[in-house]
Design goal:
There is one protein chain. By secondary structure, the protein is mostly beta strands. It is built from 2 helices and 8 strands; from the N terminus they run E-H-E-E-E-E-E-H-E-E. This is DUF1203 domain-containing protein. It holds the Pfam family DUF1203.
Amino acid sequence: MTVIRFAAMPTADAEALWNGGRDAYDNLPETMISDGDGNPCRHCLQNIEEGEEFLVFAYRPFPALQPYAETGPIFLHKQRCRRYAAEEIQPPMLAMSPDFIVRGYGENDRIVYGTGAVTEIADIPAYAETLLARSDIAYVHVRSARNNCFQCRIDKIEAPALAETGA
């Protein structure tokens, strides 16, 4: 059985930006003010409330440049926030849209063709589990179905083997 966990943007990536670092295109993040609608922070996986400042920047959630290393705009609270910790629970920010693209990637960080599907939010965990049960899929991205923006990553956690009871 494959157990899944929802993973936010790594804190090290957020810290770099909060400390004046540059984005995936070597630009400084832009500061904007949230209108309260559709500005999800990729670190805490919560919506950025109306009137709050946030950073907009190019993000590449892959370890290296390569043809499948998609880069796109995402949001981050301008003030430090806690990284999403309830990894076994689907993040609240995913309730802001009726559906998302759910797509599998291999160990080589390339898209596994045929895995991408626009998926209703209620079906995301089940579809991710199905994908992650495959040996050719290392992790899954949840992306905007309308703009393809990275939302979060889903990883597999192999369930511990049951201890032998001797019975």
